[in-house]
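Encode chain A's predicted structure.
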Amino acid sequence: MTPRFSDNLRNPSGKTSSMTDRTAPKDLAGGLAVLAIAILYYLFIGDIAESSLADDVGAGGLPRILAFVLAGFGVVLVARAIIEGALARAPKPIVATAPSRDDDPIAPLPRALGFLGFGAAYVVLVPIIGYLPAIALLIGAIALFEGAAANWKTALIAAGGAVGYWAIFVKLLGVRQPSGWFF
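Encoded structure for chain A:
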């Protein structure tokens, strides 16, 4: 029997859709929506009144930069969707692989509930143990949840990430973080 073109798109489990097949249309729609929002945002920037206290950049300077950055993200999403769509349609050899969490259509719900649980635990823990330990526990727990090994490297990355977030938000941006009973 001669192989059909669609046989090249099947993965070992016999399914014809892959993660790329499902995400490319979403990326295209999302990218176009982000581009539309960026254009509307840029058009409304003209309504910002100029002040006699304005500097060289002016009151609309930062919003213009944000509009261009947003448009850039939209272009990246659209380009990614086009490239992934083209790659998904290209014939692929059949490769035997072990089933992954992405092949299970029910897996996104428990994963989403897991992340929701982490967020809820973080909100409960922050006023008790403080920002730094709570964010370190959050980073470590998510890393373990996503399959990282439970070793000193994961703990070091969690602690370093917590210090990094603290430095960015508290020291650099001046955003006060909640202090807990202990820290």
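Residues 106-172 form one domain.
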